[in-house]
Amino acid sequence: MRMLINVPETVVADALRGMAAAHPELAVDVENRVIVRRDAPVAGKVALVSGGGSGHEPLHGGFVGPGMLSAACPGEVFTSPVPDQMVRAAAAVDSGAGVLFVVKNYTGDVLNFDMAAELAEDEGIRVAKVLVDDDVAVTDSLYTAGRRGTGATLFVEKIAGAAAEERQPLERVEALARQVNANTRSFGVALSACTTPAKGSPTFDLPPGELELGVGIHGEPGRERRAMMTSGEIADFAVHAILEDLTPRNPVLVLVNGMGATPLLELYGFNAEVQRVLTQRGVAVARTLVGNYVTSLDMAGASVTLCQIDEELLRLWDAPVKTAGLRWGA
Amino acid sequence: MLDADFFRRWMTATAVSVDREADRLTALDSPIGDADHGSNLRRGFTAVTAALEKEAAGTPGAVLVLAGSRLISTVGGASGPLYGTLLRRTGKALGEAAEVDEAGFAEALRVGVDAVMQLGGAAPGDKTMIDSLVPAVDALPGGFRAARAAAEQGAEATTPLQARKGRASYLGERSIGHQDPGATSAALLIAALAEADGE
User: Fold this and answer.
1) How distant is the Cα of B180 from the closest Cα of chain A, in angstroms?
2) Are residues A37 and A64 in contact, defined by beta-carbon separation less than 8 angstroms?
């Protein structure tokens, strides 16, 4: 195992201490694992709180700041945070205008945020929740836990965060978040498994010359294994999988997201192929973001996320944002 | 009759076996989950034993409610709320009695298991902890050893199933052929009953 860590037990706390040192504009509570924008609570503003397992950086702590999240709660690696963290975060950022929990659709995240919402409401905090479930690789049926939440989380947090910054009310911020989720789909591929600090070896075995199609962001294998494909073939497969499910009539936001260990050289090349396929399919592109945003530790691979937008969503997407992981116009 | 000391011994015995089996639970969790079930439960039950040493819990119900609350606030993931709810609801069903008989405990545990099924939305056959807990509760009137055997058989019987809940469900048919880590850890919890009873 070659990892730049001390011991597995302190990986999350060590990262939070380092994040605090690098970002004085954030209030980082290392002991209770809550990251809050330092000027919170902001008067009259709906607060956005998200969280999930660690190992997906910059998601979510890296998206705390003006124009996006008010607070984030990192759990253990790939493990949902606990209700105590979420309630503490909600209490720290609520200005009285209410709190929106942005929850990715994993059983643990859903259960813990549900418990936290009840506890926060007992403390007199108004809470709304939006569930992110954009991954087309998972069949959406009554007999599974439902679609996973992946790349759409970034779009939801950015666009709902911009609306909150404009002092739009909780009901409106929640509705926008739901609209973004409903109009977003993702598909991911892995070229290697990731290594969790607790296990110290790859979470699944992927022989050289093969890849996993339809992976999530927790080191679990995907739906299908194939012989290695070219960047162009992967782009064809991923975009077609998304467009089987979403037929955009408006332009889309494109996220070409690295899983953690794939360099930008490859991600930009992959983006060229994604854009080619979109052009061939007659899908107009409004904005494109390329980089490592919703990662899976040191997994190699990439995901594609498409979000169909209208004029208002595009305006909110373009609004200023100032966070460690995403920053423009501010 | 089972007193508060018995329930403390149950939690301690669970913590010891979770600690001993953590690597095995994590190994079971890596082909179909995310390879952390053992380390998460170890963190939780370590916190449970610490809380039971520090805080007063004088009745069987109080011991289990305290243990469940500690699991919810330390484990995270799905295991925290599910195991926490199991123990909290079982403890609440026991009420404030200083002692309970085995039949009363069996009834209370069934209330706890029902609460887990409601919270997680899982039914028997979905390849979850329910697949060892339900047979264990059914067998419990026959004693702790019978419950242990039923839970272990239930856990082993998850191997050919296709997961329909939790992270393993994302794999579809590829989840077949692996024993469920949640059913396996639930079998450890049931086995610890026999140990607390002096075996």
Assistant:
1) 14
2) yes
* A144-195: pLDDT as tens digits: 688 999 999 999 999 999 999 999 999 999 999 999 999 999 999 999 999 9
Q: What are phi and psi of B3, to 5 degrees?
A: -110, -175
CA atoms within 13 A on the CB side of B109: 25
Query: What pLDDT shows up at residue A279?
Result: 98
Is the separation of the CB atoms in A288 and A147 below 8 Å?
A: no
Question: Please, what is the angle between helix B102-120 and helix B79-94, to 10°?
Answer: 140
A82·B119 Cβ contact <8 A: no
Q: Which residues of B touch A (CB under 8 A)?
A: 26, 30-36, 39-40, 43, 72-82, 119-120, 164-172, 174
- As a 3-state breakdown, chain B gives helix, strand, coil percent values, each rounded to 5, of 75, 0, 25
CB-based contact B72 A82, cutoff 8 Å: yes
- pLDDT higher than threshold 80 for residue A140: no
B22 vs A contacts (CB less than 8 Å) = none
Complex prediction ipTM: 0.92
